[in-house]
Amino acid sequence: MGKWAYFVAMSDFRENLPRPFLKWAGGKRQLLPQLMAGIEAVGPFRRYHEPFVGGGAVFFELARRQELGPDEAFISDTNANLTAAYLGLQLDADGVIERLREHKARHSREHYYAVRAAVPESMVEQAARVIYLNKTCFNGLFRENSRGLFNV
Predict the structure, then answer these.
(1) How far apart, in whole angstroms, are the C-alpha atoms of residue 5 and residue 12?
(2) Using one digit for the tens of pLDDT, what is the confidence trace for 13-72?
(3) What torsion, rounded to 10 degrees, do the Cα atoms 136, 138, 142, 144 define?
(4) Dihedral of CA 48/51/52/54: which sign?
(5) Whole-angstrom Cα distance, residue 61 to residue 32?
(6) Helix or strand run (H / E) with residue 62
(7) Is the separation of the CB atoms in 64 and 89 below 8 Å?
């Protein structure tokens, strides 16, 4: 394989890897170079635990670098809506994507506030709600008040 073909193949490969799908308060995306340097300095590890995954910048970067095996990474968070977003995507990514397409087609001020006020029951609906609100709210930031209600 020539250099160009290899580059294109690797570019396609990298484009298809999961990336953070949310912008999260306290996100680490801007700090990735420093964080990855620190992780590399420690050396290889067997398991990765992230108790407050948020947008998952470090998790997704380690996955992109192929430093995580399927049984080696454990992510969690205390935010139930965020956890539902990850679980919804894990359970039925196609269903979440389809619901996001519906939100996109119906997007308006009225639809945004209706989705914001909604309390969906299924993981797919919850995941699509979190992602939709994150991508359409002011400054693209999902934030909740002390009662767990979205407030951006």
Answers:
(1) 11
(2) 455 667 888 887 777 888 889 999 998 888 777 888 988 888 888 988 988 888 887 678
(3) -130
(4) positive
(5) 8
(6) helix 57-64
(7) no
The residue to which tokens 């910048």 are assigned: 57
Report pLDDT digits (tens) over 78-110: 888 889 999 999 999 999 999 999 999 999 999
- Residue 54 to residue 76: CA distance in whole angstroms: 9
- Entry pTM: 0.78
Directed axis angle between helix 109-117 and helix 123-136, to 10°? 130
Rounded Cα gap, residues 119 and 138, in angstroms? 20
Burial of 77 by CB count in 10 Å (0-12 exposed, 13-18 middle, 19+ buried)?
middle
Contact 81, 148 (CB under 8 A): yes
Q: Report the amino acid identity of residue 130.
A: V
